[in-house]
Amino acid sequence: MKKLETVAKVREYLRPHRMAGKRIGLVPTMGALHEGHRSLMRAARAACEQVVVSVFVNPTQFGPGEDFDKYPRTFDADWATCQAEGVDVVFYPAVSEMYPGDSITWVTVKRLTEGLCGAHRPGHFDGVTTVVAKLFHIVQPDAAYFGQKDAQQAAVIRRMVNDLLWPLENRGLPHRSRSRRLGHVESECLPQPAARRQALSLSASLFWARDQILAGRCDVPDLTAEMRRRIEAAGPCVIDYVELVDADELTALETARGRCLLALAVRIGDTRLIDNVVVDAGPASR
Description:
Layout: E1 2-4, H1 7-19, E2 24-29, H2 35-47, E3 50-55, H3 75-84, E4 89-91, H4 95-98, H5 117-120, H6 124-139, E5 143-147, H7 151-163, E6 169-173, H8 192-214, H9 220-233, E7 238-246, E8 259-268, E9 271-280
Parallel strand pairs: 1-4, 2-3, 2-5, 3-4, 5-6
Antiparallel strand pairs: 7-8, 8-9
């Protein structure tokens, strides 16, 4: 396994493999690798002859007051994880390598980034799409592998790939991993065991609403109001949003219909948690 820190080295390494027709898979990460990342590496390893994992904490997707400096940087452990999963290359660039000089070019996906997390984190998705576009340009993968925990991010990247005609497969695997971060932070508001217990109210409210929709209850304001009540009843928190949207276009719905995304973002102590579930509500006339 190779650790490559520059764009030039990555391109130099991959060039003969690409010319030989070998299939290249990319797993973009910000490090602090966990079982969700492992599942993506395994999927890439099973389908590709060369697997590249990027480990880069991207500063442009963090807004003012967000935790860029506190974001966990665990490269030694990440390296061991990549070795265990048979990765070929770990791309570990410096910020100056990914953003040389005075970068003034950005990749923006409109409309899909306006609601949900985009409404609460201005500029976040411009940072995500720009760095992912750079990684695609550097690695030129045949397939890219993303977790589906952040459903909005997954939808935005899919749309970017389609709109910019990138010749790659955008593959995703569902994995409930974000809540694990509660075990790695010291909450100023709640002790960790209490925070973890409280976090269970998020998924519980999502699955409750999903079951209600599948049973024929389709009034979105009523459903989301009850979800909020259940989450707030579990303990002190700040709810950024609880919404039901079209799963593809991410537009808000007043009545559950078709393929829907139930999504939420809640701050428990000093940690912001996101979660979601997709549900097929069937036709609106049901």
